[in-house]
Design goal:
about 100 residues, alpha+beta, YaeB-like fold, 3 helices, 5 strands, globular
């Protein structure tokens, strides 16, 4: 199974790194690397993540890394990382709509 990152998800990673790097640039790079490594394990067991509560759709799931939610879409032969955001926030459905276009 292949893993793909949407433009939205990559943009979010950049924003997270930029925010963390305000205080500690080295920690920001390390955190993003670990978050990506965590996400890269999803294709090994794509149903490991829980169903996203805001959507209740079986094919859109999420894994949590520290306090960040990694939201992904399970397809037949691939997994698409749709977005990444802080865990205390609710999923913004319009981000997923932009991703699917």
């Amino acid at each position: 199974m292949k893993l793909f990152w949407t433009k939205e998800a990559l943009l979010r990673l950049q924003e997270i790194e930029k925010y963390i790097s305000i205080d500690n640039p080295a920690a920001a790079v390390e955190f993003i690397d670990k978050l990506i490594t965590h996400a890269e394990k999803i294709p090994d067991n794509p149903v490991k993540g829980r169903i996203v509560p805001e959507l209740s759709t079986r094919d859109v799931r999420e894994l949590v890394y520290r306090n960040y939610r990694i939201v992904y879409l399970v397809r037949n032969n691939s997994v698409d990382i749709l977005t990444v955001f802080e865990g205390h926030q609710l999923l913004k459905k319009e981000e997923l709509i932009k991703t699917k276009k």
